[in-house]
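Lab notebook, bench 4. We co-purified these components, and the gel suggests they stay together. Before we commit to crystallization screens, I want a quick structural picture of the whole thing.
Request: model the full complex, all chains together.
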Amino acid sequence: MLGSAVIVFRETLEAALIIGIVAVATRNLRHRNLWLAGGMVAGVLGSLLVALFTGRIAELAEGVGQELFNAGILVLAAAMLAWHNIWMARHGMQLAREAKQLGADVSSGHREMSALALVVGLAILREGSETALFLYGMLSSGNESTASVLGGGALGLALGCAAGVALYAGVLRVPARYFFSATSWLVLLLAAAMASQAARFLVQADLLPSLASPLWNTSWLLDNDSLPGRLLHALAGYDAMPSGIQVVFYIATLALILTGMRLVRLRPRLPAIA
Amino acid sequence: MHKVLIALLAAASLSAWAADNEFAITIREHRFEPAELRVPANKKIKLVVHNQDSTPEEFESHELNREKVIAPGAKANIFVGPLKPGRYPFYGEFNEKTARGVLIAE
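Here is the predicted assembly.
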């Protein structure tokens, strides 16, 4: 029971924190809850499919299908988050300044919401497929009763979701003045974290050089396996022993998104026609 | 003629590479075999992990910076290194209690 609770909690934690951040970042968009729920359902169904075809996926691309698949998911999710931050840099202030524009922005709000619902779906896809495989293994090995495995799984799921909800509630309490920048920092770090994880999978597939492995080792300070280590890993991509290329991807992603945000802010806007 | 010779030499060196730097690990009853594996340091090596169980396993190691799900009955190739001399523990995330092993680079 405890075993399945721990593993399901670990896998759920990362996805739940990502969903918490997405929920915060989209709190003013129309039909948010519907979009988020849609992303979650699609993610769960998708993860069952991925779990079912694990062997097939792994065999693709001369044995590195799994790495390419994971890296692809991470890059896509990071790109959606980057786009969100750049979109918000442009429209967030505009929305605040020109209340009249709100009506005209509904369609781009939909596009925005679908991009972030995709991030939710992808997060669940990645973590969910591993959870499904693990639970399947536990159930078919028959060492524990079905009720015990599923009970533990439910407990882990509940704890992981609670962490996501706590993050969501916590960020919502940030004073309005700082809220906008707090949200964009969370999204920014999340995108960089995903890019660095993608780099790790590409090194594992032997498609990228590691540059230095590891570049540093801070296990003595904060271990990857500890709860704070896992939280920081999920939120900001913490890795106690990162390879050089991971750090390169991390910093490059930060720089690219920050530059994009700055550029759209600088770009002169058409005067609002009342 | 030359081209054939070069191709043959290349093939020979490739297979030599494979033989020298390939190491097999088997997963059976949620345990790694061998649980302790000596590998050359400062060289890129290839681990071929064969999961002979009927359940999936996830090969994971923070020290090696690797994580890979291995389907029941499947073989997974995992490239690691070049490693500095030292001990690099790895484990099976789905059966953490029993599935434990260590690479010793020397």
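Chain A has one domain: 2-266. Worth comparing against the SEC data before the next meeting. The first helix of chain A runs from residue 2 to 25.
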